[in-house]
Amino acid sequence: MIYEDRLSNEIEKKAKKTLGQTFLPKDIDAHILQTIAYEYPKRKINVELTSNEFTCICPFSGLPDFAVITVHYTPRKKLIELKAFKYYLYSYRNVKIYNEHAVNKILEDLVNTVKPWAMTVIGEFTVRGGATNKVTAEYKEK
What we know:
By secondary structure, this protein is an alpha+beta fold. Helices cover 22% and strands 35% of the residues. The strands form 2 sheets. Strands 2-3-5-6 form a 4-stranded antiparallel β-sheet, covered by helices on one side. Strand 5 and strand 6 form a beta hairpin. It is globular and about 45 Å long.
């Protein structure tokens, strides 16, 4: 290891608990997600987060799935803390989950954590068997 004396923080440890093993969606710890206060709650803004480092494992084939995950949301009182978001997505690395279920779980966990006015999660998965898969899940306050 390059930085053998480097200490991992608690969020990083939670995210890396799946290393070297395979897990199920129920094993993903949404408590990795952290928030920061949105200081302009009367102003509705649009926030877009994008990560091109998402991976999970196909439960059918056991092969890795790679995706770009994009989150669009209108915050109410909280913003998603970016480092925690990165570690949360990393925690899917060795989880057996279908693309459609991953996108829905990400949406549910983020909505429960941030409680936004609206949110959309888009997963653009790379080619598998000659086909790409783009999954979109949405939440809007009723």
